[in-house]
Amino acid sequence: MSVEQIEREFGRLRMNEDGTLGLRASVLNLVAVTDEESAGEVTRVVSKLAGRFPCRAIVMVSDPEEQTANLDIRVSAFCDARGGGGSQVCAEQVEVHAEGPPTRHLKSLAGPLLLPDLPVFLWYPGAFSVDSPEFSGMADLADRVVVNSAAASDHGAGLRELSGLTRDPEMPAVGDLQWVGLSPWRSLVAGLFDPPDRREELERIHRVEILHDPRGEARALLLAGWLASSLGWNPESVEENGGSREFTFAGPSGEVIVALDSGSQDASLRRVRLYGEELTFQVSRHRELSEAMSTVMRGDDLLGERTVHLGFFDQDVILGEELRFRGRDESYVGALRMVVEMLDL
Amino acid sequence: MTETQAVRQNILRDEERLPPVPDPGVMVIFGASGDLTARKLVPALYDLAAQRRLPMEFAVVGLSRTEMSHDDFRKKLREELDEQRAGSVSEDVWESFSKGIFYLPGDSKKPETYEELKGFLKKLDAERGTSGNRIFYLSSSPSLFPAIVERLGEAGMSREEDGGYSRLVIEKPFGRDLDSAKELNGDIRRYFREKQIYRIDHYLGKETVQNIMALRFSNGIFEPVWNQHYVDHVQITVAEDIGVGTRGAFYEEAGALRDIVQNHVMQVLCLTAMEPPVAFDADSLREEKVKVLKAVRPIPEDGVKETAVRGQYDGGWVFGEEVRGYREEGDVAPDSETETYVALKLLVDNWRWAGVPFYVRAGKRMPKKATEISIQFHKTPHTPFSGPDTEGLEPNVLVIRVQPEEGVSLKIGAKVPGSGFEVRSVNMDLLYGSAFLEEAPDAYQRLLLDLMLGDPTLFIRADEAEGAWSILQPVMDGWSRDAHAARYPAGTWGPEEAEELLGHDGREWRRP
Q1: pTM of the prediction?
Q2: ipTM greater than cut 0.90
Q3: Can you list the alpha helix ranges (DSSP code H) found in chain A?
Q4: Pick the catalytic residue: B233, B264, B484, B504?
Q5: Is B13's Cβ below 8 Å from some Cβ in A?
Q6: Deepest in the core among A292, A339, B147, B279, taking most CB within 10 A?
Q7: With contacts defined as CB-CB under 8 Å, which chain A residues touch B50?
Q8: Beta strand pairing status for A55-63 and A28-34?
Q9: Domains of chain B, residue spans
Q10: How far is B4 from chain A (nearest CA, A)?
Q11: Can you name the residues that pair with B322 across neighbouring β-strands?
Q12: How far is A23 from chain B (nearest CA, A)?
């Protein structure tokens, strides 16, 4: 199937019943690089995105292990109607199955299929490596690379690799779905210190406890890294004990301990607790429920509490949130670098 | 990071991805037993709370004459919320949010009510950490506004002390005419400074209305043609297919001019005609809107008939349904001359718009609901194509549709395929809905958040309200001398006189 044939097929898909061509509204290009095993799930996520981000999605399903060159291209369109009414939002999808030598030249396949004048998001849904044969070429096409730092089998190694990527001025900006999933938590933690009379406690935090399960390790590390980089804590030492790690930082007002405990039974990120001089702050959730509770305590006295939506964590929702962001996320870069410093202790 | 930096601002929130959250505070709602509180304000606040946009230390105090306990009030609000957000109300979130909802029965005219309120708010400051920040939301009958403001002032509650704020929210209508608007503004300003006053017209909170500014000021291609050199005239239509329904008594007092034209239509006129503001902030935006209102040519007393059309719907058919006339509606006088339709010809006397008429119309029981701005461009000065070939060609028209299907449509000339050079007009339609499927937040949600964050950009300034009244005052004076409203059958685009208003100028209304 040639580029012209693909474009003609898209034209046919948006043709009205009377033979006129429906106008196309698109806001971005999304290029996903995945393998045969995950292709179905990636396609499903992309189709669910159609409602929020009318786009040209190019799903590159790559199998470099095959010896024989083979290419299979499928074209489809996903439409979503608003409230069952007249207006529709449509996304176009090209699924490219590449085997053998073409997998090293994915750029030559994706490049001509991109819609002009629109940003290009390069998404790696699974484990990602800057050393993969196609990456540098694909990165040339992209305005932003979106990865999932928790997809790496070794979370620490994955985060180190990402940190290296953010330091390379030739590379596009990086987005991490773990960081997006952390946003509601960061918002709730920040909210604990919004009242002006509590901001002084930020200076006096001396202990932080983060409870997570093994799946939530990358997120927990990023949360710790964000707090440390935002509040000016310098990592000094670490002690490991089974599933828990205690990092010691030098903060502006003295020593700060950050304890990461991977013993959560029911949620990837279960609880974060911050101890100030007078007050204790906590954000927690039960299981994978969509609500979280924030509390502020003075000793045993409850000073304030609230329950809010933590948000939804389906992959299409998280990816959609990431696609709203275009620039370099300095908070993420700062957190990531701090995490690497912590891991290097 | 120094200590002062951390204390001055919450450094954890200092980034683009974490949206700002208002400071702690209390919203006191006067007239809290009314519909607005249960149907709009509290659902919007609940949504904000659920989305982590409210601080933990936030409370609502409802106040009205009806005897109710805190729990009765919460129960009433919850029932309405369940109706509006069927199946999507979280028990845990409501439980947490409703703990901050309280109710005080009281007569808003009596000073003792304010003493009680003051004590209650101090208690909330101590118990819920609301930090002395107050919002007084006047959702009661407009006739009570002056008394409430005076009592608040006398009780010292308009004063901003110890770094706390005191804000006053007034729902439209802002007066009944120019004199009453000035009087109301004068009454309020005896106790509140302009920066404390938030006049709310929910129309400005609509994403679709804000999109008028996005279209004009984020697209460089429109600005060069947005003036008298290229534009022949502008039409603004705010049409509703519904009648007055259960609002007969209110409508008898108000009429379409006060209900829709003075606020919604004038705001759309301002957003269409104003110069680009230097920034999207309260002063910059409102300055530009006020300049437009000042530039509108005053309607001469003896020119009302030639400039303004007053109409009232009779019975008729709207989309296959037979509907009764205005005079047969509930709480409407059988000989009422209240207008349900207004059409005006306005001229904006400034460099950009000199000689370009703005025809505006607003009405009930029109064939369909439609709000749109239509920019009609001049004809091409000369066409090289021969006469018969261009019979189907009309001037370019850019239509900004605000509702119901928000979008932009451009009418352009295009060649009909085939031999020869026949040119015809083609409408190119772009629905914003086909680019973004996300549900826009409710207008109140946006405005309440702005209010709590202290951003008055989307609220009406005193001189805006007075400026709009000032334009319409001659029309109201003229109509008070000759009250006759021209009849139009329900389901049509207004009375014959409205057609003549444009017909005199050799133009005609666009069919939305």
Answers
A1: 0.87
A2: no
A3: 3-13, 39-49, 106-110, 135-141, 155-167, 177-191, 199-203, 217-231, 315-323, 330-343
A4: B264
A5: yes
A6: A339
A7: 308-309
A8: parallel
A9: 3-171, 205-440+467-503
A10: 9
A11: B317
A12: 7
CB-closest option in A25, A186, A306 to B434: A25
Nearest CB partner across the interface for A308, out of B15, B52, B429: B52
* Minimum CA–CA partner of A325 in chain B: B17
Domain at A180-343, CATH from 2.60.40.720, 3.80.30.20, 3.30.420.40, 3.30.360.10? 3.30.360.10
Check if the beta carbon of residue B75 is closer than 8 Å to that of residue B134.
no
CB proximity under 8 Å: B 38-97 to A: 49-52, 55-57, 90, 92-93, 95-97
Give contacts of B11 with chain A, Cβ < 8 Å.
202, 230-231
Candidates 3.30.360.10, 3.40.190.10, 3.90.1150.10, 3.50.50.60; CATH matching B205-440+467-503? 3.30.360.10
The CATH code of the domain at B3-171 is 3.40.50.720
User: For residue range B168-202, what is the model confidence (pLDDT) as tens digits?
Assistant: 999 988 899 999 999 999 999 999 999 999 999 98
Question: Count of CB contacts below 8 A, A vs B?
Answer: 149
DSSP B101-157: EEEEE--TTSHHHHHHHHHHHHHHHHHH--TT-EEEEE-S-GGGHHHHHHHHHHTTT
Give the one of A188, A252, A303 whose C-beta lies nearest to B1's C-beta: A252
B283-334 pLDDT per residue, tens: 999 999 999 999 999 999 899 999 999 999 999 999 888 999 999 999 999 9
B264 is an active site residue: yes
CB atoms closer than 10 angstroms to residue A140: 14
